[in-house]
Structure formats: C-alpha cells, structure tokens
Amino acid sequence: METYTIIVLLLAATIRVATPLVLAALGGLFSERSGVIALGLEGMMLGAAFASASVSAVSGSAWLGLGAGVAAAVALALVLAVACVTYRGNQVVAAMAVNIMVAGICPTLGLAWFDLGGQTPQLENPGQRFTELTWPGAHAARAVPFPGLLYAELISGHSLIVYLAAALVPASAWILYRTRFGLRLRAVGENPSAVDTAGVSVAGLRYQAVLISGLLCGVAGTYLATAASSGFARDMTAGKGYLALAALIFGKWRPYPTLGACLLFAFTDALSSRLEGVALPLVGVIPVQFIVALPYVLTVLLLAGFVGTAVAPKAIGVPYAKEK
Amino acid sequence: MDNATSRNLRWMEPVLLPVVNLVLALLLSGLIIRLIGENPWQALQLMVAGAFGSQEAIGYTLYYATNFIFTGLAVAVAFHAGLFNIGAEGQAYIGGLGVGLVCLGCGSLPFWIVLPLAVIAAALFGAAWAFIPGWLQAKRGSHIVITTIMFNFIASALMTWLLVNVLIKPGQQSPETREFAPGTWLPSAHDILARAGIDFSPSPLNLAFGLALAASLLVWLFIWHTRWGYALRVAGQNEAAARYAGIVPAGVTVLAMLISGALAGGLGLNELMGAEHRILLDFPGGAGIVGIAVALMGRNHPVGIFLAAVLFGALYQGGSELSFDMPHVNHDMVVVIQGLVILFCGALENVFKKRLSFIWDR
Questions:
Q1: What is the ipTM of this complex?
Q2: CB contact (8 A) between residue A287 and residue B350
Q3: Alpha-helical regions (H) of B136-188
Q4: pTM for this entry
Q5: Would you call A246 an interface residue with chain B, using a CB distance cutoff of 8 Å?
Q6: Among A254, A271, B39, B357, which is 20 to 30 Å from A289 by CA?
Q7: A289-303: per-residue pLDDT in tens?
C-alpha cells in the first residue's frame, strides 16, 4: 500500500478511536469545570457499555441500547453526585468506588443473564449496532485518491455517534462560553461562594454538571459496545476513562484543545497497532509499549509544567459547605 | 464538629463504623446475589468455609492478606500525609521487578544474603516509582492522584516491554522470566512450621506474611513514635500549621511517597519470591486497588489494616471457592464488595458518622 493510503487509513482509525475519548472527555470537562473531579468516567463508560450491549442484545434495537447505556451512566453519575455534592465525601474515593463496583457488577450480571463468561451475546443483527454510514458517492469517490479517498474514509464511513461527538465539541464550547449556564458552571468551579452569594445553587449546578458527564459517558460507552465492537467484553474500557481524563487535562480544561488531545492520543493508539514490528528508518523498531505509554508520559510532563502549564479549576475536589 | 460527636468518636469511629459499613456492603452484595438467583445466606456460609474451613484455606486467605497488608500500609502512610496514592499497583509492579532481578541475579548466593538484598530491592524499586509523582507534587504542584494513575499505566507498559523483549526466558512463548533458583525462594509456612514440628497443610503462605507483620509494626512505630511520623501527620492535617511549626510540607510529601512506594514493593516478596518464583505479567492483579479499600476500612491504622486485609484475603479465597458451588458468583462479586466498602467507608463516611452518633446519643 502506498504511503498516502496508509496515512488516510491511519487518520480514519484515529477518528474511530478518538470518538469515545472525546465524548467522555467532554463529559469530564463539564464535571471538572464545576469543581467535581472526573475520575468516574471509566466506571460510567463501562457501565454504559454493559447496559447498552445487554439491552441491544435482548431487544434487538441499538437505540434502546443507547437509552439503557445513558440511563446506566446517569444513574452512576447520580451516585457520584449524591456522595460528592450532597454528602461532601471525598471525590477521588467516591469515583474509585464507582469504578471498582462497576468493574465487578458488569461481568457478574453478564454471567448470570447470558452465561457467556461475563460477556454479552454478539450483536450480529445490523439493527443492534450503530453501523457505519456510507455517504452518497463514497464508493465512487474512492477511485479518486485525492480528495475522493479522504471523503470516503474520513468524512463518510463512520457511525452516527462519531458525527455526534464531532458536533458536541463546538456545542460544548458554546454552552460553556456563551450561555448563562456555562458562565455559572465555570464560576462554580473557580469560586463557589461567589456563586452562592449571587443566589445560585452551588449544589444544583454541580449536580447538573455531573449528570451531563454521565450522559456523555453513556453515549461513549454505548459507542464502545455497539459501534466500535459488537458486544460487551470484560473490562472493555481498558483505561479509556482515565485516558479521557488525561486528554481533558492535556487540553487544559477547554473543549477544542481537549479535542486535539483526544485526537493526538487516539493517533498514538492507531499508530501503535500499525507500527507493530515495523522497522523505521534511523530509529529501527519502536516497541509498541513505548507508544502506548506516550499519552500518559505526555500528561505527566504537562502536569509537571515541562510542556506548557495546566491550571485546574481552582475549587476542584473541594466540597462546598454553605456557611451556617 | 459538635461536642456529642467528638465524645463518642473515640471508640465509635474505629470499631463501630467499619462494622456498620461492612454489614451494609455485604447486605447490598447479598441483594445482588439474590437478584441473580442464588441464596445469599448460603453463599456467605460457603464463603466462610472456603476461606477458613481448612488449613489450606487459611493458608490461602493469609497469603492473599499478605499482599493487601503491604498495599494497605502503602496507601495508609500516604493518607496520613494527606496524599492519595492510587499508584500502589504500579509501585508494587516495579517493586516486584527489583525482587525478581535480585532473585535472578543472585541465585548462587546463600539465602541469608539474598533475603535482605531482595527486601532492599523491593523497597528501593517501589520507592523510586513513587518518588517521581511525590517529587512532582511537592515541587511542581502536579496532582498526585492523576500522576500516580498515569504511572500505573506507564509501569504496566514498561513491564510488558521488559517481559516481552528483555527478561523473557529464551525459547518460550509466554512473557515470563525463567524460574528463580530454589535457594532464593522464601520458605513456605508449611516448611517453617514443619521444622518446628507443627503439621500445616501446603499453601502459598510464606515468610512474606511475617515480613508484612514486621512492616506493620515499623509503620506503627514510624507514624506514632517518631518525629518524622509526627511531621507527616501534622502536614497531612493542616499544611499551614505544619509550616508554622517548621515542618517543610514538600519534604514530607516526598518522604511519605518514598515510604508508601517501598511498602507497596513488598508485594513482590510475597507474590514472586514466595509463591510464583518468576516474574510474570500483571502479578499485582489489582492488589494495589484493594489496598485503598483496606486502608479506608482499617482507618489507616496497622491493626485495622491487618484485620481489613485478612477480611479481603478471606473474600478473595472464599470467593474463588464459592464459584465451584455457585458458578454465577465468582471473583467479580468480591470486586463489587470491594467497591461498596470503598464507597461506604470512604465517600459516604460523613453520613454514617452523623447518623450513628445521633442514634448513640439518644
């Protein structure tokens, strides 16, 4: 295959890998901007992946699966919100608790319901999955390398959720920077007592933010189970929630840079499967594990201030207690 | 805090709270077991029998508990300094690498030289892996929760690379090292007790259990009976007060993480030197995460950590025995209980504290 085709296919793979990251990271963005640490993305995604795959397998409808995935993730978000906002518990502990609980509950229920070793049945019927949409003329365009192949691989040929994720980036930016809700949300993450003084409920805003993160993780998990693959497998998020959090930090808590970070991390992922055992000029074979670790190393370097600076929302992780 | 709470907290907090939390977690887990069509009461009985029913079962329970004591202590020491070390998993992984390298490299040396070398290597490697997040938190202000999570993933990638490309036994498919020389193995409880004339069924329980108990004692001495431990607790509770008292919080952060990582590294002694006798992929197997539950439930005190570690050891061992009789209830159920314990002991701690002291005062 010529280099051009390889690059285009690599970029197409990047888009597919980036989608759940973008959705989860945007969810985390709302949560963290309101002052609640978004460590629970992993668990909410995993729960959604299981719920969507189960319901889709039983009902035969991907859309019902999506509904179930979102409902499950929002329910988990509610647990987080109750623990972190209402009862002012430690946000890191609460999120770890949810992540661990979900990691155990999904295969337990899966085993009991489907008897497939914790997996859900394969979603074979096209109606059970969010399959790739082929845009008009994509087949014909493939014959023309430029820009036809770009159109066929990058614009066309993704599932609906991919386009939704792409649209949600500007939408989130608009909500965050151009609406009253967004302004209040950003304020509550920086200075909750000021928001409280202005007569706006701190708890209410944080609840909304955490539930939004649940909603988006629900879509992300559904994508993993019913679009990127065909069914739920044990621990199928495999750290993607933490990677999304890293992308969010790498994107300095802003929607567009976060999208960029997600695409960068997804690109390294796509690259690592492509580079397996391939000798490159000058450097030779790069071990796959080095590329796998790259997003984490980059995030640590950024957090350490060696690559630019990342300033977190000021009130993050601090439960807000209204003065008596 | 109101007066009533503080009066009863002395014994209520360390004793009653964990018990109430555990009961709640077990009740909810029982509900799930009921939901999937099994009898929760029978499951509990099978589990207790599986964990304590025979010498072999007890051996396995304490063998798992050894891992959890090490990681629980690791999380607890960081907690005392106000740090949340989620990286015990990665630190244990790298600490185990140190143990493995000593055992692979010093196979011809007598055991009484290998043992201290391995203990030092476990502590050094684990501490080194914890040092970077600690230093970054102290000097560069990077959030330690995030960096330790990232370091877990980095450790996992690094160890995979090492095992696949460097340390793998030549001519073998699975990414494992060759077996350590038998002279470097930690003696099993079976052998130790046999020498004392006591008959104890063979199990993976080994000398590392004793090392874990010794580590618990050292942690207790360190936290409550040294000036460094005092500095650690002060800095953890009130950084401004600590600074006023002449304590350097940055130094405390680094010190706490070094000790924390060194303790996590102890897992390698039990798992590799005591049981597996080779380095293999992902040998910590989530024990670093269990350590969080153990530390929270044990209220960060070595005695509490020991009890919580034995409890989780029993859940692990009982859970795997349980799956023979109830194929639908297995290790994953234990993970659920673990999550619930963390939720109740850690995140919802305020709820129970208030309710309990309210009931108590009536």
A1: 0.86
A2: no
A3: 144-161
A4: 0.89
A5: yes
A6: A254
A7: 888 888 888 888 888
